[in-house]
Amino acid sequence: MKRRLSFITLAFVLSLVITLSLSYLLYNSYVQSGAQNRRIEHAYKVVLQTSELENYIKEAETAQRGFLLTRDSTFLQPYLSIRNDIKPGYDSLQRLTADNNHQHQLVNQAGLLMNNLIDHFQHSVYLRSSARLLETREAMDSLRNVFKAIQKEEMNLVKRYAVNKYESAMPRYFAAIFLFAALIIIISFAVILKEYRQRSRYQKELEQKMIEVNAYTVELEQIAFATSHDLQEPLRRIRTFSDRLNWKYRDQLNEEGQMILSRIDYSARRMQGLLEDLMNFANLVRGGEVLSVVNADKLLQSVVEYLRQDIDIKKATIHIGQMPTITGFEKQLFMMFRALIDNALKFAKPGIPPVVTIQSVQTTGDELVHIDKNLSKKVFIRISIQDNGIGFSNEFNQKIFLIFQRLHTDAEYEGKGIGLAIVERVMTNHNGYVLASSQVDKGALFNLYFPVQEG
Question: Domain of 121: which CATH number?
Answer without folding.
Answer: 1.20.120
